[in-house]
């Protein structure tokens, strides 16, 4: 354990207290060993480093932005979702902290083991339901029992949102979230042992004028296979951005290949004065700068691109490409 370093002001205050008799040096020596003792609760074992917690926070900040866009479009009202906190605690403590009756979405994330829990405060869930049914988005904090229609609507609403969760995790691991259960009573839910460490991401959510929390509970067993990837070193690697850039380049190239361009065959060019132009009449001849035994030039969107020769195919005027244009000085 590192030693605490006192500032100069603290040293002066300590010496002053000792000289005036306000503090006894012998008592200070007795208290020093006690200050070095820290209480450690083995039931609250911290299994994730600060670095890993920051990575999880970064992933879910991206998820909150995607979720904001999804709910704004689907509910057609003001929606704001942002990460409020990321904590690790025993599963039992998390279950005790949520309401006795709430909205619980349990989904698997293949190929990872275990399941993840998304808990939506009833105030928020009913505001979403009210908007879907054409209301103003009024919420309620009380759930007695959900009808089959309400259950179906809420299940569909949260199930569609899992597509955003898949995208948020895409930079770390490809997962396939599938909604498996929909519950309203956390007492009937036992995903892991009570003392199992879980990461709880709290999302501060506003739907219209209604505010509440959406909590995402991820057990340690789910994250265990990918813990090495939740590090700054992994995020700094360039392989993944390079792969993503290659995919973007291929998509852009595919779109460009289908774009239409203007192609023109140039028989020749000539410079004449305005006076000559105004004096042109039928049967006059303009001499071009193109020799009859030299290939013509093809332009692509006003840029010279190929050397060509004129011809005919199927009773249509055509040109044959001879070679790529290299410039007049190179021929």
TrEMBL record:
Where, subcellularly, is it found?
A: Bacterial flagellum basal body; Cell membrane
Q: This protein's superkingdom?
A: Bacteria
- Which segments constitute the Flagellar motor switch protein FliN-like C-terminal domain? 256-323
Which keywords does this chain's UniProt record carry? Bacterial flagellum, Cell membrane, Cell projection, Chemotaxis, Cilium, Flagellar rotation, Flagellum, Membrane
Primary location: other
Sorted alphabetically, which InterPro entries does this protein's record hold? Answer: CheC-like_sf, Flag_FliM, FliN-like_C, SpoA-like_sf
Please give the Gene Ontology molecular function terms for this protein.
cytoskeletal motor activity
Q: Tell me which CDD domains the record gives.
A: FliM
Q: Which Pfam family is one of this chain's hits?
A: FliM
One GO cellular component term = plasma membrane
What is the membrane topology listed in the Swiss-Prot or TrEMBL record?
A: Peripheral membrane protein
List GO BP terms, alphabetically.
bacterial-type flagellum-dependent swarming motility; positive chemotaxis
Q: NCBIfam families of this UniProt entry? A: fliM_switch
Family, similarity comment: Belongs to the FliM family.
Q: What is this protein called?
A: Flagellar motor switch protein FliM
Species classification: Bacteria, Bacillati, Bacillota, Bacilli, Bacillales
Q: Which gene encodes it?
A: fliM
